Amino acid sequence: MAEHALRRRRRLWIYLAMAGLAVFFLFPLVFMFVSSLKPDGQILSDVGGWRAFLPVGDISLRNYSGVFDRVPVGRFLLNSVFVTAVVVGAGLVVNSMAGFALSRLRWTGRGVVLSIIIATLIVPFETIAVPMVYWVSQLPTLVFQNGIVQYDFGWLDSYEVQIVPFIANGFSVFLFAQYFSTIPTAIDEAARIDGAGWFTIYRKIAVPLSGPAFATVAILTFLPAWNQYLWPSMVVQDENLRPVMVGMQYFFQDNTAWGEIMAYTSMITLPVLVVFLAFQRAFVSSVAASGVKG
Amino acid sequence: MKRKSLSMLAAAGLSAALVLSGCGRASESSSGGSGEITMWTHSAGNPGELAVYQQIIADFNASQSKYKIVQQNFPQGSYNEAITAAATARKLPCLLDMDGPVMPNWAWAGYLQPLGLPDDLLNSLLPTTVGRYKDTVYSAGYWDAALSIFARKSVLDKNSIRIPTVEKPWTLDEFDAAATKLKASGYQTPLDLGAADKGEWWSYAYSPMLQSAGGDLINRGTMKTADGALNGQDAVKFFTWFQQAFKNGWADNAGPVGNQRFIDDKVALSYTGVWNAKDALAAVGDDLLILPPVDFGKGPKIGGGSWQWGISVGCKNADGAREYLKFSFQDKYLAAFADSQVVIPSTTAAAKTSKYFSDTGALHQFAVLSQKFALARPATPGYPVISSTFEKAAKDIMSGADVKSTLDTAAKAIDTDITSQNGYGF
User: Fold this and answer.
1) Around Cβ B364, how many Cβ atoms within 10 Å?
2) Whose CB has fewer CB within 10 Å in chain B, the N or C terminal residue?
3) Where are chain B's structural domains?
4) Which residues of A touch B40 (CB under 8 A)?
5) The complex's ipTM?
6) What are A141-196's pLDDT values in tens digits?
7) How far apart are CA B337 and CA B55, in angstroms?
8) Would you state the CATH architecture of domain B35-144+305-365?
9) Contact of B224 with B426, CB cutoff 8 Å
């Protein structure tokens, strides 16, 4: 009986600690949502006290209507959803196939190629951004003009320039290669005896057995794709093609519109929160299974 | 099955090749005689400013049929990256705006061509709104900004502090005495210097103080060295005062950025810009004083040079771009910018028609300060490095670093950059 009470008390403390941590991590989000309802002056005056986290004072949805006056937020959201979805989807296919080839196929130079791919991880994107701009500006492209197909050079100001450079990813290839290498090779050999080609083995054996790896890569690709800022700032000139993160800068004028920034960030954070909450269980289990830490 | 797929692929490839060989290059067929003039602004997210641009463009496009302005707007925070990328890809627009001190770098980098506007137009503008690099004009702007010290008359009167004028600004001793009195009167931090801000603000706000003390960011005579200007006796004296202002608790870097602490009466004096004047006026009313900057020894100084317009080197319709710029510098447009953005119009005639900056306007004092005390930042391509080096050094000193050695290091870093770029052509 005493042991049961002790266990209950211990569990209570654990829950209290977890609730405390949850509140601590929720503070920034609460601050963001609450501030999105307040005028700029009040946000700044409330900072530093508990009022910053409470919907008190002059509360309204004015900041939200201000966001729509200043930024084509729907268009930006649509662009980000499209770019992110294609980068994640195509990334899963391309990187898993590359990982499979490096892990399961036996070919000369495999180790060297894997080393080179891993080496790309230590190169910060900022150092290659400007040369990349030059490079993509020289790529051929087809354009439809005056009813006929014509060719031109330069991928600037397009969806493809926001998508293609980020599909292949060294870390994703490495992760897939590592994960595929844990699948026993005896399965491959049995499938080969039954007449299966490498693509069939990849599609029907490796992919179904690698759910956690796919989920992990999807998460790790999703966040940077959604948060892209520098690259689209450099290569996208048409407002109709801009993603949400570039839109954030619209609010930083000589006088920063803090209330509208909070409203805008609330709006662009919601899709990410919804995705995370919807797939929460799969995310946690995939991260645990693949051993990747954030 | 496999053979059929391959043959279909080959046929598709052949068709594509035939289509490609039979059609022209899109940019070749569209760039020829078109009178389209591309124009990039940093004004995305600023509805007031964009409305004036849209009016000018609509009026210009309607006034003639030879040229058509096509506007593209970028947010200010990512504008320079967009320009650098476009220059790398050789896709710069015809007309582009730029922050004044950046102009020499872009001219030196080969982005800009001489502006080529008539002298009578350029001569009618405030000197700090005309961008000159090596005696050639590359840019001109519709407005300038100015800094001042905001105060409440009631607070100064209550503490028996003399109200400074343009003719007789505060000396450093008077300013120190005022800060001491205000702190003793109950203001925990009497002065908001804006030290919570970052980036270009540091050079814009504090290098004029340095210049007022007799120092500078660089030796403007040669533009080849910062040694002696940034780390000389006057500079050390000024930065020692700057450090002391934070040590004494007269100023801090707590923020928030902007003028909210002054509006809330948490600070008595706020060193800030014309862009915050409208809100301050609304909050403080007739009690608001717009004071001249402090005289650190060589006369008060404020930074000059705001956003300006230039024409890119590769512009195929440069004559049209010039026509547009000439058209856009009408006083009615300058006044519209001034009143929507609360900035100082670049001509006296426009100022006279402005709601805020006319002789009887509530913010006329800023026009006076700009005319009397504005000093442009050094017109050298090395300015971006100078500015970021200055910011780092000033922040280190604010945090307690040794003044002389910090300034020596900064001067050396600037000189190293200048040497590595072969003097930037000077």
Assistant:
1) 17
2) N
3) 35-144+305-365, 147-303+382-425
4) 237
5) 0.79
6) 888 777 888 888 888 889 999 999 999 999 999 999 999 999 998 988 899 999 99
7) 11
8) 3-Layer(aba) Sandwich (3.40)
9) yes
